[in-house]
Amino acid sequence: MLPLIIFGLILSLFPLGYSMPLRAAHSGAELIPEFTSVVEGEPFHLGFWLRPDRGWHVYWRNPGDSGAAPILKWRHPPSVRMGEPLWPFPERIEAGPLVNYGYGDELFLTVPVKWEKTPAKSVVFDLNAEWLVCKEECIPAFGKFKAILRVEGKTKPNPAWREAHARALPRLPRRNSGWRFEASREGETLRLRLQPPAGEPAFESVEFFPYDGSLLEHAARQEIEWVKNRMTLGLRAVAEAASIPERMTGIVVVDRALAHEVDVVVDKASSSLAALLGFAYLGGLLLNLMPCVLPVLAIKVLGFLRYSQGEAHARMQGTLFAAGILVSFWVLAGLLIFLRAQGQRIGWGFQLQSPVFLSFLAVLFVVLGLSLFGVFEVGARLGRAAGWTHHLRGWREPFFSGVVATLVATPCTAPFMGAAIGAALALPAAAVFAVFSALGAGMSAPYAAFTFYPRGLQWLPRPGAWMRTLKEALAFPLWATSVWLLWVLGRQMHWAGLGHAAAAAWSIVLAAWLWKKWTLRPIRAAAAVIALTGAGIVLMGRPSTLAWETYSQAGLEAALSRGQDVLVNFTAAWCVTCQVNERTVFNRRKVREALQRPGLVRMKADWTSRDAEITAALERLGRSGVPLYAIFSPQAAPRLLPALLTPRMLIDAVENGDGSRRY
Length: 663
Description:
Elements: H1 2-12, E1 17-18, E2 22-23, E3 27-33, E4 35-39, E5 44-52, E6 58-64, E7 71-75, E8 80-82, E9 91-95, E10 98-103, E11 107-115, E12 122-134, E13 138-152, E14 156-157, H2 159-168, E15 180-186, E16 189-195, E17 206-210, E18 223-227, E19 230-236, E20 247-254, E21 258-267, H3 273-287, H4 294-306, H5 311-341, H6 355-372, H7 379-382, H8 396-409, H9 417-424, H10 429-452, H11 466-473, H12 475-493, H13 498-517, H14 521-540, E22 549-550, H15 553-561, E23 565-571, H16 576-586, H17 589-595, E24 600-606, H18 612-620, E25 628-633, E26 636-641, H19 647-655
Parallel strand pairs: 4-13, 15-21, 22-24, 23-24
Antiparallel strand pairs: 1-13, 2-3, 3-5, 4-14, 5-11, 6-10, 7-12, 8-11, 9-10, 12-13, 15-16, 16-19, 17-20, 18-19, 20-21, 23-25, 25-26
Helix pairs in contact: 3-9, 3-10, 4-10, 5-8, 5-10, 6-12, 6-13, 9-10, 13-14, 17-19
């Protein structure tokens, strides 16, 4: 009887029938209704209140580079409809190279509730909530909550709601506040233009938080430009986001005090196909000024005129050469559309996604630059890149020469071209063909024009000493291209393999110099060996990644019984510190070498989805969250490493297998 009396006294402290506040994983949580009693059929709100401990944080609806948003799972009567939670604006949480969005003080989620009239005397809500609490480690938390609301003739405010909602209300994004937004995409940059209403107070800072977590590089700086009273935010799109989003949604936070909701259609490259075609034509025209194309232009036109059987024949050859270029661009367009249909996110230059191909191009442009600079001569032969077509007769020779000229031009890229193709790939197939046709027309235009109007050749400057200067000057764009290719290679391989590319370039340049300088067969044979060695070094530049075994208790015990040490990496995709360690520690070359020592087994315990076996292993080690790095040794206690690793710390730990150094 006494327990029932005590339970009744506890319930009497709460005018509603709802669960008490909960403590879980360095945070407090509570379900707070707006009213102590509700009126039949009238809408109201429920509030879910999260309060992380000092130094810890929880996440916004888009957590950023890592983390996980709270999940609310409701059970309620069929007459009830739960709305989408209203999220207060978050703050940026920086962790090494990553940026997350969340709350370090509190999160009060407001959930609108609509319901139909019902003769029930009460409305019951059951909530199963999941949330992630992070500091250096991340801990999943769970809680069950209940609210029983009485149905009466009028609503009665809940004092507990008033306190929490009063702090959250100023941080809720405003809709239809008079601010005007426009959005467009230019290459890898999304531009969001903001125009406040007249009379809006001056402000100092603006920041955009996207609802879509896969749209932007969260850690990239948001560039701000002012033009009169209009502001433009330059936002870097993620490299994989090749398609243009239909809409840009999120919130704009002003002075970290006021938020406005953004939901605007993205202007697809000014929404003008005519403008895209103009940029594409200009880009194709400028391709003729690239070092890999420019030498071919005058040579081919003069060849048409010199070896033709009359003016009409010369025009036919120029037209066929231009047709070869145009058909080649159509084939490229068809290939891109086909691969896009297979689900591939690709664009112009998709071959540059291969580290080996990147290394090859970087080395090639170094060699060609040295050739232009006069270190050795290969330009004359490369100028006849279509030489294999000379044995063809009739219309085939000029046509396939145009095809080869296009293949030579594809590694080059010209101004205006990238944006035009990037926009076209988000359009229907017919638009893609139109843009590629404009590119081909631009590139082929000079050949056709000079064969129809050969007098235009007199506009070209006369040969002289300037040609040698121009030839040497053209080496610098090629070397700049090599630098850019090496930068792309570094981003792909986390800066591993650049030494391979540099060594390959040195080997091939040395081989070319030896081949040119001496005609003795032994020296030329040595040059060929050196060149092949350089090619082999390029192939060695593949990214090196660590292979991890999937964690299991049985696998761990089996490795220990064989006398092996075991490094277990307890991690999760939503764990920010885990991702920082992956990028800054485990990807280091010296760390990879240390972890590949004989006698060490690497196991990864991925806790992204809740796993009972991993949970039990964490509990045995006295932990409740990730990251956790544990080194198990036969006949020795497990050694636990700190959540924030350094390369030296990890190397020392795995090299001291006897446990002489502990953390």
